[in-house]
Every structure is written in C-alpha cells, then in structure tokens.
Records
---
Amino acid sequence: MRCSITGYGTSGPKAALPGYDFILQAESGLMSICGASDGGPTKYGVANRRTCVPACSPAIRSWLR
C-alpha cells in the first residue's frame, strides 16, 4: 500500500521540488489573508494536517477491507 502526496504534482517545471507547507502557503496567497490587518503575512497553522488526513484515510480504509 502506498500513498503519495506531492507539492507540485508529478509533472511540470516544479515537479521535482519539495512542497513545504510554508512555501506553498506563500505562493498560493493564503498567508496574505491571515494574521493582523496591519501586520505582515502570517502562516496558517494546520495546512499539513488538512492534506495528510484526507489523503491517507482512503488508503487506510482500503487496507482494512
């Protein structure tokens, strides 16, 4: 059983790059809408969990069947 998560997909110019949460939030613009209105960009705290759980749950369910 294998579950693979990539930051930029399996093909394209950034496919070989690691997908770090902090970088992906900055590139997507998520950091620009988080934090104080008079402050700089702020990292949103739970993005990694919001990716891993939905990706792994179907794999675990199929393994248990």
---
Amino acid sequence: MQQTVFGLTFINPLGLAAGFDKNAEAVYPGAGAGLRFVEVGTVTPLPQPGNPKPRLFRLTRDRAVINRMGFNNEGAAAMAARLQQRPQGRTGRRNPRHQSR
C-alpha cells in the first residue's frame, strides 16, 4: 500500500487526519494501532467548549454531514503539555524509513 504524496513516501498510507484528535490524546494509541501518521488539531490558544450540542448533523438523503463543532479543545498549553510527555523514541519527527524526493 506504499504511496508517495507531495514528495513523501508512506509505507502505509493510513493515518488520522487533523480535526479528530483535538487534544493530542490519540497520537500514541494511533501509532500502536498501525496508523503511520497522526495529526493533531484543531487547537486554539485558549480552551473553548465549542458550539452547543447537537453540533453534528447527518443529511441522509443528501449523503452529507454538517459539522458545527466550533473548535472544542483544551487549548494550546494543554496540548503542548501532553505532547511533552511523549514516550521515548516517539519524537513526532519524520520516520527515517520515509523518504522525501
């Protein structure tokens, strides 16, 4: 399943896109589950609760979803502190097996 995208070669192209892990909580479990990359975000400078619920709507007939999450997250300081606690050997840097062209 290897793919090269924007000059980066991914041995396994499966990953977690930004927006799902707004508080940097799934970075290391995601890597342990076989994901080759995990992006964190969306993060704001200060914590904020997001929009009132419900904030995610499914439009079945249109085969669509409306997202009105409102950037709910714990803020940049909380995310930075969580990332500082990363396990040894998990730097968040590019994997040496990935090659850029």
---
Amino acid sequence: MSGNYGVYSQKQFQSISTAISMNKNKIDRPYIYYFDINNNIVQITEVFNDSNKKSNFDDAVYLGQLKKFHSASIKPIPKL
C-alpha cells in the first residue's frame, strides 16, 4: 500500500528529547502529531511511505495510515 504510515517509539522519543536538551539536534519540537485516517490526532516519532517498513526501535508501535500533518510542538498538546 502507498501512503504515510505512523510509528511511535518511546525509546526513540527519549533519544530525540535527550538530543534536544543537549543541543545536539537542530530539531527543537519533539512532539509531532498527525491525523490518522479516522481523524484522530496521534503522536508519532517516524513516518514511513511503505506499510512493510520496520522501525529500528524494538518498542515501536505501528499506528496505521496517516491522513495529514497536524503540528509539531515543544510541549505535548492537551488531551481533548
């Protein structure tokens, strides 16, 4: 299948957050959100264009197909 597929890994999120706090990364917004195909807002750490692609992080949770980008933030968005 083609499209964008979301993945969330707590280990990857921690790695990104640590790099940001140590100023080792140009990315300063670790909270990345997309709309899934059901219009739910989901936090992701990776996006793949291939549904068969696998994350390098062993705790990765596959969130399914994504519809469109929502936002990237320094802090988590409040729960709705």
